[in-house]
Write the structure tokens for this entry.
Amino acid sequence: MPILNVKVSGTKSPELTAQISELLLDLTTRILKKKREVTAIAIDYIDPEHWIVGGKSLSEQGKNSFYFDIKITDETNTKDEKALYIKEAFDGFARILGRLHEESYIYVQDVRAASYGYGGYTQEYRYHH
């Protein structure tokens, strides 16, 4: 059910896509307890020349970065679970990308059940049926 929108600096490759998606699937199922079979991940690759932090490109700084947001149904995870998720995701991207810029972001977005869904049904509808 969750959807993750990922932006990562670097060159697109099947290997990097597999590493990132496996990391995020593991964390999302293990920590946030979401179903793997309905977790969707979209990954966009950004040239480090076009990713600017503090007025300088990542390539100038010799760094890598990422951003992702994940939409989850509100009230389904605790603050501690979300904090652990953010910490482990940051550490995982650091291992995968190396030379990770501290200005890399994760946004766990709690979305109201009546406003969020898939397959034509809201999460609120699914809860009641």
